[in-house]
Amino acid sequence: MAQLDWYIRANLKPKHLQLLVALDNLRNLGKVATSLHVTQPAVSLALGELEKGLGLKLFERTARGVIPNAYGECLIRQARVVLASLAQARDELRALQSGASGKTTLGTMPAMTPGLVPQALTLLKQRLPNNTVLVHEGSMDSLLPDLRRGALDLIVGRLANRHAADDLAEEPLFEGSSTVVAAIGHPLAGRRRLAWEDLAGYPWVLPPMGSLPREPLETAFQYHGLNMPSNYVETLSVHVIVGYLGSTDAIGILSRVVARHYADLGQLAILPLELPNPLRPIGLTWSRHRALSPATKQFMDCLRDSAAGLRL
């Protein structure tokens, strides 16, 4: 234990972390050597020295290459976090050199990009013009791994768990309810009262099977004794939903905040129908294991203030 503690504190360097990540990514000493611009014997020597210094075997050597064992997987996981933190420090220093005050790397679900995120960005630039945000759009399934390995500072979207995992912190911003929508010129648009039976015969844009928004819709159809539509397309893409509804008599569902955004623009009508609301709230997710930068905290305040001002 003393050797392990001493080696990590005094001798473990970024080049060792880069080697571990490259070995995990490529699983082949020759390919790792090429990627790091060194010889294969140099890679073998460096790995041997690392394992000797730690007093632990990290990889199993096989005919197909190298495979990390439990010790290797643990160290690789932490190596990715450390390298991401160093990259974040580099980016912040570069931003400061260029006159910016700080930088946040944000992950966002597509449903947040029409309204909430642009409003928060506008607010940030009003308050702190020299702060900047790099925005990555994706599903929670793709964003959460990036957050855990340090490639993202923050995610805004539907909260992944009712109780966050031990390594994640969550903060709700507003409820995640959905609403039924159609084009502004749809035959059902503008009516003060509708029954679910009135939707029969119209095509639909449905959330895919297994997605969170699908559950309340299926529950509503079942409760009202209706079959699910047979004429439909499936997507979670906000742009596809809005575009398809605008050119057809189809009906769809969107999160209430997105539906209100397009209704305010005069592109969609919100139909007076209630959906059950088992969906998880919209909110912020970040890692408990990494300190939030001042820039990220400032942008979180902008997201909170923008969410508080949304008309839901």
UniProtKB/TrEMBL annotation:
The record's Pfam families line, in alphabetical order, gives:
HTH_1, LysR_substrate
InterPro entries found in the cross-reference section: GbpR_PBP2 (IPR037405), HTH-type_LysR_regulators (IPR050950), LysR_HTH_N (IPR000847), LysR_subst-bd (IPR005119), WH-like_DNA-bd_sf (IPR036388), WH_DNA-bd_sf (IPR036390)
The UniProt transmembrane annotation reads none
Transmembrane helix as UniProt keyword: no
Tree of life domain: Bacteria
UniProt domain HTH lysR-type: residue ranges: 12-69
Keyword list, A-Z: DNA-binding, Transcription, Transcription regulation
Q: Which family does it belong to?
A: Belongs to the LysR transcriptional regulatory family.
Q: What is this protein called?
A: LysR substrate-binding domain-containing protein
Organism of this sequence: Pigmentiphaga soli
